[in-house]
Amino acid sequence: MNIGVWFDLRNPPGWRQDPARLAAFTLELCEEAELLGADSLWFSEHHGFEDGYLPQPLTFAAAAAARTTRVRLGTGILVAPLRKTAQLAEEAAVVDLISGGRLELGLGAGYRVPEFELFGTDFAARYQILDQQVSELRRLWGDALSSYKGEFVNFENVRSFPKPVHGADLPVFFGGESGPALRRVAEYGNGWCGFNLSPAEAADKMKHLDQLIKAAGRKRSEIYVALSPYAKPITQDDLKRYRDAGVDELGLLDFNPPASERDLIAKMEQMAREWVEPAAKI
Q: pTM (2 decimals)?
C-alpha cells in the first residue's frame, strides 16, 4: 500500500499573521516527505474564511514540483466550479510539465456557499458545472484546436497551450463520498479521493463504487483510490483493512503543524517509521 501526505493548509492561531512561515514549512515538509519514502503529496483549498487557509493548491503543487523529483503531486481537493475551465486547463498543464508528468488533478464541486458568492459562481449549478468542466478539460488538453458546446460554456476552434505531458490522459480524481460523487469517479474519473473514512466506512463505499464501475462498463484497475482517515483514529493494523477494502493509498494528515524545523523533521521521521515502512510491506 502507498502512503501519501495530505496538507491541510490552514494557519494555526499562533501563525495566523504569518502565512509566509506556513508556506515555507509546507515546502520543507514536501522535501522531507519525499526523502522519507512518501508516495504522494496532496494540497487542499478554501477561500474567504478566517481559518487561515492558504488557497491555490496548483501553486503549491508547482512549488513542490521544483523541490522534489519523485512523489506524485495532487490537489485534494480543488473546487473546480470556482474557476474558468480554460484557466484551469492551462494552470494544470503547466504544473504537470514542471513536475515531469507527476500531477494528479483532484476536483470537487465544493460545499461552502460564501466561496461561490466570493467568486461569483452559481452554487446551485455547481454539480452540472463540474460535470461539464471535465469534458471541456479533456478537449482542451487533447485537441490541437478545441470546440465545445455546453450549457455554461461554448467555444470553437480555440487553442489551449501548453498541453499536459500525457495530453488528455492527465489523471483526474474526484472528491466526495456521496452517490453522485462516486458516480463521477466510476463513469469518467481516473481516481477517487475519499475523506474522513474509517476502514469499515471505506469498505462500504468501495462496495458501492465497485457496483458503479461495473455498471459503467469499466474495470476496477482503471481507478486509483486514495483515502484519508482525516479525524478518524487508526492503527497500523488498519493498513491491511484499508487494503482489503480495495484502497490503493492512505493519505495522512497532521492537525498540528510543526513549531520548528527540528520538530518538522521529527514528525516526518515518525510518520515514516509508523506508516511508510509498514505500508511498504503490505
A: 0.94
